[in-house]
Design brief:
This protein is mainly alpha-helical. It folds into two domains: 375 residues, no CATH class; 56 residues, no CATH class. 62% of the residues lie in helices and 2% in strands. The protein has 20 helices and three strands.
Length: 441
């Protein structure tokens, strides 16, 4: 067993960090009260028939392509769905995306740079930590982004046997979120720029081009029928918000820690004769795609300032976390080519693991403080059942931020919606929601 662990230390470290991350997320999930968007996810997948599901998707209540909701609609016929199970699914998709990111970067840069980049980004990404807790589709969006980049590596040699998997990966990316086609398109640009030995119309792989045609046709169908009821809220787009979008993925200063460890080792072992290392090959297409994906927040931030279109929401760009892992792994691979001896890589590797675990524990502690019922503003929207001693229903007046109170159930809560548009939407939303209209009184 000792020899096995020693020869597979990279995978043991990856397992440890994934275990701690999953444990932290599960703890936070248990503390978190259900909120409005998670309820939209729940009611978006819980239907008795496909016709009900189809009608729900076209109301605009779930203003997005249907993959996540269709996937869970099918699952709920076998396993009863709840918000708690949808949250657990988000954690699973996050872990899948991380594992794919690790194998992607390992295939290009080697195991140690891939491991360091993966555990650093996983431990520091606010997006991954927050969306792994949510009963929403962004964790699936992240996993699909990792799948697309992984297929790009497999297709780097134009291997035709992976064509159908490439088509499926890009289709899933496009059908889980409307911005998925942007990330798919940027991936296609990298193919175009790196396939100079091919004809102009042959540079984009056929599976990706077919995915774009199918996705654009489906988008036109969805958008002509859906109405963005939930996407009308203001979105902060200051310069500080743009910088936070990148800073929340990774603190650059943390990369210095394993680098300093390597420099100290190199200095202490300067007299050691070191055999030449074979330099790690790097896929130009993957690097271009990663740079373009990381630039997506800046592109949409710029669009929000030169036009009326403001889609600057950090979770819309969650596939960029895969690209961050790739770029950080590239930096580590460059440094590790200069490292003195492979055995001494254990020092920065285990040191980075310790740093990552500390960051996860601190992040969990901070998030748990915010989810405490005494400090959590969502909890104040939930009425304790002990306060409802009579059979009189609780009437809630206002907008959808009170929606989590519907979880009290059994007709205890009635919504007084003076907004006719909200009332029309909610009446289609679920039979579990009791509505009254006092606007005429």
């Amino acid at each position: 067993m000792k020899g096995y662990i020693k020869s597979n230390k990279h995978f043991v470290i990856l397992f440890v960090i994934l275990f701690f991350f999953a444990s932290s997320v599960r703890q936070l999930q248990s503390l978190k009260a259900p909120w409005v968007d998670e309820c939209y996810s729940y009611y978006g997948v819980w239907h008795d028939s496909f016709s009900e599901f189809y009608i729900s998707m076209l109301t605009g209540i779930n203003f997005s392509p249907p993959l996540y909701f269709l996937f869970n609609f099918c699952i709920q016929f076998v396993f009863p769905t709840s918000i708690e199970q949808l949250r657990l699914q988000s954690l699973v998709f996050t872990l899948i995306g991380i594992v794919l990111s690790f194998f992607l970067t390992r295939k290009i840069f080697g195991t140690t740079p891939a491991l360091l980049a993966t555990i650093l980004v996983l431990s520091q990404s606010s997006l991954l930590l927050s969306q792994a807790q949510e009963a929403r589709h962004y964790a699936m969006f992240f996993a699909c982004g990792a799948w697309v980049l992984y297929m790009q590596i497999l297709n780097d040699g134009a291997v035709k046997k992976y064509n159908w998997l490439t088509f499926l990966a890009h289709t899933c990316l496009c059908q889980v979120h409307y911005l998925g086609i942007i990330f798919s398109f940027l991936s296609g640009i990298s193919y175009f720029l790196t396939s100079k030995n091919k004809g102009m119309w042959q540079r984009i792989p056929m599976p990706i081009a077919l995915c774009w045609f199918a996705s654009i046709a489906s988008y036109l169908f969805y958008l002509t029928r859906q109405k963005s009821v939930l996407n009308t809220w203001p979105k902060p787009n200051e310069l500080s918000d743009l910088l936070a979008s990148y800073n929340d993925s990774l603190l650059i200063i943390t990369i210095i820690i394993p680098c300093i460890a390597l420099l100290l080792i190199k200095k202490s072992k300067r007299e050691t004769e070191i055999p030449a290392k074979k330099e790690t090959g790097c896929s130009p297409a993957i690097m271009i795609t990663s740079v373009l994906w990381v630039s997506v927040p800046f592109i949409f931030w710029l669009i929000s300032h030169i036009s009326q279109l403001n889609l600057f929401v950090d979770r819309y760009f969650i596939p960029k976390e895969v690209a961050v892992i790739v770029l950080v792994a590239y930096g580590f691979s460059f440094i590790f080519q200069k490292s003195p001896i492979q055995k001494l890589e254990n020092v920065p590797m285990f040191g980075t693991l310790g740093l990552s675990l500390v960051i996860i524990l601190i992040s969990t502690k901070r998030a748990a403080f915010g989810l405490n019922k005494d400090t959590n503003y969502h909890h104040s929207l939930l009425i304790d059942k002990s306060s409802n001693k009579t059979k009189q229903p609780i009437i809630l007046e206002g907008d959808h931020r009170y929606f989590p109170n519907a979880y009290l159930g059994d007709g205890e809560v009635v919504f007084d919606l003076k907004n006719s548009e909200f009332k029309e939407i909610y009446s289609k939303f679920s039979k579990k929601i009791q509505l009254i209209d006092t606007s005429a009184k």
